[in-house]
Specification:
The complex is a heterodimer of chains A (112) and B (113). Chain A is mainly beta. Helices cover 0% and strands 51% of the residues of chain A. Chain A starts with a strand and ends with a strand. Classes of the chains: A mainly beta (112), B mainly beta (113). The interface between A and B is medium-sized, with 21 and 21 residues.
Chain lengths: 112, 113
């Protein structure tokens, strides 16, 4: 089954404790993105990747890191999480030159 | 820069009534346009998309949207609301260079019995 998976689905952590949210897709897609969803703000792009080893900042990259060492994986790293990073995070992927974007189920992160 | 504006963060309709969710885009060249739906505690699901073919686009669950270049709009409609339509709806645009998506702030649809 074609899908985008994220782990964990729920995470409660404390300020400053490094964490990684994993994202994996099995569709051989070139493009992958991370979004955060906050009430009244919709989805805002954090980082995106156009292919292996090619990443770029989105609209709200501060406090986040990403890497794309393999085509299928695009982890989101929070080196020193802060409470303002409490949010719902979505990973998404799509094929190059295609308009259909597939979303993961989301990761709800709470930073205390 | 592109942007997508959704008018009304909350819309409430009665079951059986018309649903109208508004979306306007700002772009000198009409982009590809999308409507996504998010049911409670779930991810985003594509409802429909406009990709420069027919201006009236039909999607899943009886929804449709009309692209109007003169109004830079892509409003979502459904003739008769059902309780199961209660969800949050997001409008999004994708420029022709396929660079990145731009999302609106979302509209929560409440359907009253």
């Amino acid at each position: 089954e074609a899908q985008v998976t994220q782990n964990p689905r729920y995470l409660i952590t404390v300020t400053g404790k490094k964490l990684t949210v994993t994202c994996s897709q099995n569709m051989n897609h070139e493009y992958m993105s991370w979004y955060r969803q906050d009430p009244g703000l919709g989805l805002r792009q954090i980082y995106y990747s156009m292919n292996v080893e090619v990443t770029d900042k989105g609209d709200v990259p501060e406090g986040y890191k990403v890497s794309r060492k393999e085509k299928r994986n695009f982890p989101l790293i929070l080196e020193s999480p802060s409470p303002n990073q409490t949010s719902l995070y979505f990973c998404a992927s799509r094929a190059g030159g295609q308009d259909t974007q597939y979303f993961g189920p989301g990761t709800r992160l709470t930073v205390l | 820069a592109q942007s997508v504006t959704q008018l009304g963060s909350h819309v409430s309709v009665s079951e059986g009534a018309l649903v109208l969710l508004r979306c306007n885009y700002s772009s000198s060249v009409p982009p590809y346009l999308f409507w996504y739906v998010q049911y409670p505690n779930q991810g985003l699901q594509l409802l429909l998309k406009y990709t420069s073919a027919a201006t009236l686009v039909k999607g899943i669950n009886g929804f449709e949207a009309e692209f109007k270049k003169s109004e830079t709009s892509f409003h979502l409609t459904k003739p008769s609301a059902h309780m199961s339509d209660a969800a949050e709806y997001f409008c999004a645009s994708l420029p022709y260079n396929f660079n990145k998506f731009y999302f609106g702030s979302g509209t929560k649809l409440n359907v009253k019995p």
